[in-house]
Amino acid sequence: MTIIQLEYLLAVANCGSFSQAAEHCFVTQPSLSMQIKALEEELGVVLLDRSKKPVIPTQAGEIVLAQARETITAYNYIKEAVAEFKGETAGKLRLGVIPTIAPYLLHKFIPDFARNYPRVELEISEMVTADIVEALRRDRLDAALVASGTCGDGILEQELFNDRFFVYVSPENPLYERQNIRIEDIDLKDLVILSPGNCMRDQIIELCQARREMPAHYTFESGSLETLMRIVDCTACLTIVPEMAVEYIPADRRDRLKTLAKGATSRKIAVAVRRTYVKNSIIRALTQTILDNVTPGVATL
After folding, report:
1. Alpha carbon distance 92, 194 (integer Å)
2. Structural domains present in the chain
């Protein structure tokens, strides 16, 4: 039994496919299949049900996978501990980012991170929160940039900064003349929000203390705040946007931004990792680079 065999087995379980697992591990499919077959022969049990699409672990496979995850974590910790001792920050970082953060934050810190940590290979995926949590738990991601409090058990979150909410209002909406809007004054029929799967949608619904089947004229599966604002521009609707998006709204449309009345909420941006994650030096580097390049709380109307 080898670490490579356990890593290949875990890759197939995560990907649900021998071909995708081989691509993920940068090996040929025959090589990966041969290693897993050798592991099964050594243990005397079938670990994967190859008749199912996607491929799934057998009952014996689930037992082996649980131990394999712990073994690989311990193995990686040895390398990480030695790297930390040597003062190195190196390796691959698979980073997930939710769609309401990615367009406003990534470009601010990636150049410095790449320049200061050239031995870190940064692999970024834009994903909704539920997919990020699943990917973290299945070791498809190492870390993620999320809204704090959305990942659940087994995931550690380190809060970075606060991100206030603002109302973006059509000039045709009755609330346009106000500079400060109370949540209770918003007509929910005029509120356009993101599609299900976006955690900011859930935060807005909670903020409005509305039921989940929230009445709205429009929802968008794209998860694009920019699309919501364009809809507001050509209707009598309104939407809610995070502070990090404010600086990208053109000057001729800044009049449509209104503050939320005192007591209204915001979200906290956080770095999320698995509780068993071991690349601590890379996470520290990522966190510090973000804080060095982001100045929260500066939106002016």
Report:
1. 32
2. 3-84 (1.10.10.10), 89-161+267-293 (3.40.190.10), 163-264 (3.40.190.10)
